[in-house]
């Protein structure tokens, strides 16, 4: 059963917020501030389902993002605040914004000017890795965090619901290999039910398939996490930290660094 859950970020630059994964984080939303634009329709997305619509404001252009970010960073610096990371996330997939590569360049320059010790992070669902400009931009950031929720196609489609039938686990795993040693692979662990179908990517079959995928990708690390906020699908269950740690240990035994959040 789905519930009425809608976009949660109503500005282009938001925060800073305390991220359980990244520290004190200033968010950059490259999607509309009154709608959602995403190439996935994840059953666990805190911003809700794509059916809510794309809104009326459109994707923010480079000039607006840079202006808003500069204004916020200047204010934080003047107030003596600290900053760990600038994170591209928000109401959808940031790499869908056509100005994404240029905005990354601007963001790095502003970071260097105001908070040179802060990191720049991108949370991406990995659907735009067939675009060379997007990939070049992702290589420039400190934390290139790319999603892989399952290495089994049917499970990935159930959990992530990609909007393109051409997106497959086989294809994305191959594309992720280009970031060997540089990408952080983020995997949401969960179980429950969606549209009458069982959801569970914590089974031995799923974990073994993920381990083989991680070994092929050779990431800087794997980031395992589970549900922390409300989701549009009501019949999902959080995987608690002790179980996440047990899964992480199995992955670590294959020589892959894992962070549990």
Question: How would you portray this structure in words?
Answer:
With 261 residues, this protein is of the alpha/beta class. It has helices at residues 62-78, 100-114, 132-140, 153-160, 169-176, 204-217, 241-252, and strands at 13-19, 23-29, 85-89, 119-124, 143-147, 183-188, 190-194, 197-200, 221-225, 236-238, 258-260. The strands form two sheets. It has an eight-stranded mixed beta sheet with strand order 1-2-3-4-5-6-9-11. Strands 8-7-10 form a three-stranded antiparallel beta sheet, covered by helices on one side. It starts with 12 loop residues before the first strand and ends with a strand.
Helix and strand arrangement:
Elements: E1 13-19, E2 23-29, H1 62-78, E3 85-89, H2 100-114, E4 119-124, H3 132-140, E5 143-147, H4 153-160, H5 169-176, E6 183-188, E7 190-194, E8 197-200, H6 204-217, E9 221-225, E10 236-238, H7 241-252, E11 258-260
Parallel strand pairs: 2-3, 3-4, 4-5, 5-6, 6-9, 9-11
Antiparallel strand pairs: 1-2, 7-8, 7-10
Shape call: globular
Low-confidence stretches: none
First-residue to last-residue Cα separation: 27 Å
Q: Counting H and I runs of at least 4 residues, what is the number of helices?
A: 7
Work out the radius of gyration: 18 Å
- Number of DSSP strand runs: 11
**Major pleated sheet:** 8 strands, mixed
What fraction strand? Answer: 15-25%
Structural class: alpha/beta
Widest sheet: strand ordering: 1-2-3-4-5-6-9-11
Helix content: 25-40%
The helix/strand order is EEHEHEHEHHEEEHEEHE
Average pLDDT level: 95
């Amino acid at each position: 059963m789905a519930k009425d859950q809608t976009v949660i970020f109503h500005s282009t630059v938001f925060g800073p917020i305390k991220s359980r994964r990244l520290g004190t984080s200033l968010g950059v939303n490259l999607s509309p501030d009154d709608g959602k634009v995403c190439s996935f329709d994840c059953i666990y997305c805190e911003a809700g389902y794509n059916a809510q619509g794309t809104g009326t404001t459109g994707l923010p252009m480079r000039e607006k993002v840079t202006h808003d970010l500069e204004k916020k960073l200047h204010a934080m610096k003047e107030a003596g605040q600290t900053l760990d990371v600038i994170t591209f996330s928000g109401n959808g997939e940031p790499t869908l914004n056509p100005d994404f590569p240029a905005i990354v360049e601007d963001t790095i320059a502003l970071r260097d000017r105001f908070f040179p010790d802060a990191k720049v992070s991108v949370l991406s669902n990995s659907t735009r890795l067939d675009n060379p400009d997007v990939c070049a931009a992702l290589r420039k950031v400190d934390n290139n965090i790319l999603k892989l929720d399952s290495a089994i196609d049917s499970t990935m489609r159930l959990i992530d619901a990609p909007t393109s039938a051409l997106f497959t686990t086989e294809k994305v795993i191959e594309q992720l290999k280009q970031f060997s040693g540089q990408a952080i692979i983020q995997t949401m662990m969960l179980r429950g039910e969606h549209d009458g179908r069982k959801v569970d990517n914590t089974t031995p079959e799923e974990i073994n398939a993920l381990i083989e995928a991680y070994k092929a990708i050779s990431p800087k690390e794997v980031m395992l996490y589970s549900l922390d906020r409300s989701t549009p699908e009501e019949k999902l269950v959080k995987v608690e930290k002790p179980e996440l740690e047990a899964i992480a240990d199995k992955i670590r035994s294959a020589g892959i660094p894992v962070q549990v959040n």
